[in-house]
């Protein structure tokens, strides 16, 4: 670095020191606490807490909700990115703002809107009861709320990348006689695969970790409508600290894996950009 | 007569259509297929999942009538919750600006062991489920917790007070300021600082008169994002907040409480006010981002 564009060593060292201290206290310490509380009575108790039957059914429901919400939002994300990035039309900006809406809404409200629609006193409540269907306080409600809160992730990652790539390659493919699917699978997808994966990872992390929205629609029925984050809350409120932190450590593992994958993809993308 | 066209048909069509031929039409013609399918599906899915449910919320609040709505939205407990939510989110977002700027600066400008790990960890609040953050922070800052005990020595209660809410919102908001400021700082041309040095400015003057103005749009965007998130945050707050009505009860929790008491009018009225605030924030953030982009382009 050139002289005059950096600070004297003492200022530099103390700034680094404060930053490291902040990261240690605000970010690392909470993770250390989760692990130490989860393993406070040894690995045996930790394992017992995780293999509890309610914990396992919560894990299954969390995986199920993510397994539906993530693919649904992938299809939406790719479709939205295709029409927004590859075509010019009126009202595009408005459409983009609408896609961002779920990020601006409090998770609690995301749950509430579905209660107002499908709950017993909701718009469709009567009809659903007559047809013996249940959405709120049941699995469909949890899936819907999860889809809502993870709605923008894939689309938001894809749109800027696809806009930057323009339409030249796809137009060339179309001119050479490729149909829409061929163009997408052979030309577009290879160009966007890392951005797509990035969006999917973020979407999945949020889908598995969502608390507020799911909490409102779940009804907290153990073994039935309890996801992992909700199970953490129940255990914690019942003063089963060890079990709560054991289940929490699972979710923390998910977060750590997410961060690692994210860092790897970012490094790849940065390298790819250097090549071009 | 029939001279072969020596032009790429794709270019030809592009040039033709670029001439604003689509003025008065909904979209610019293109050789690419799939607009109808993808646009239709996008609109359908967006309406079904997002727009209809949000519209249902507004319709429901109209059903109750203006008077019931006003009564529910301005009850003392509701106003107190808004005060708590606003105050804590505002203070936490301000602290996020201080620490976010510092972190972004250190991560971009200095090289030190552990820098890449720190950089990756900044996103932890995005990736960590809020319930996990919530119980972990509550345990850390409880009067007998690892950190809470030191505060207790000074007679300060963190967990189960509004201070605890701030700690949780500080945690949740970290990535917003760092991630908006970081790219601007990375692209900042060092020659501005060199020029200022040549003209006799010291480091502090350069920071406050050259760097800070350049970082202002991005910083404000980060602040607004952190503030908006803080207003609506639920999972990480409720464990550490204590949730005392009038004192440490946040708005999202009050919505849940009303809902659990089957007070749909109350829950809906608060939610509508909250949603309007969120939309206003979204608008403000969009304007800030546009400003930040323009500022970036000017350089």
Strand and helix map with partners:
The complex is a heterodimer of chains A (276) and B (299).
Chain A: H1 9-38, H2 42-50, H3 53-86, H4 92-104, H5 107-118, H6 125-130, H7 139-150, H8 153-165, H9 168-175, H10 180-209, H11 212-218, H12 228-237, H13 241-275
Chain B: H1 9-18, H2 35-64, H3 66-73, H4 76-109, H5 115-121, H6 124-127, H7 130-141, H8 148-153, H9 162-186, H10 190-198, H11 203-232, H12 235-241, H13 251-260, H14 264-298
Helix pairs in contact in B: 2-14, 3-14, 4-9, 4-11, 7-9, 7-12, 9-11, 9-12, 10-11, 11-14, 13-14
Tally of separate helices of chain A:
13
First-last Cα distance of chain A:
26 Å
Assign a percent range to the helix content of chain B.
over 70%
How far apart are the first and last residues' alpha carbons of chain B, in Å?
A: 54 Å
Strand content of chain B: under 5%
Question: Can you give the helix content of chain A as a percent range?
Answer: over 70%
Characterize the structure shown.
With 276 residues, chain A is mainly alpha-helical. Chain A has helices at 9-38, 42-50, 53-86, 92-104, 107-118, 125-130, 139-150, 153-165, 168-175, 180-209, 212-218, 228-237, 241-275. In chain A, helix 7 packs across helix 10. The radius of gyration of chain A is 23 Å and the shape is globular. The mean pLDDT of chain A is 92. By secondary structure, chain B is mostly helical. Chain B contains 14 helices and no strands. Chain B has helices at residues 9-18, 35-64, 66-73, 76-109, 115-121, 124-127, 130-141, 148-153, 162-186, 190-198, 203-232, 235-241, 251-260, 264-298. In chain B, helix 9 (162-186) crosses helix 11 (203-232). Chain B is globular, with a radius of gyration of 26 Å. Classes of the chains: A mainly alpha (276), B mainly alpha (299). The interface between A and B is large, with 104 and 99 residues.
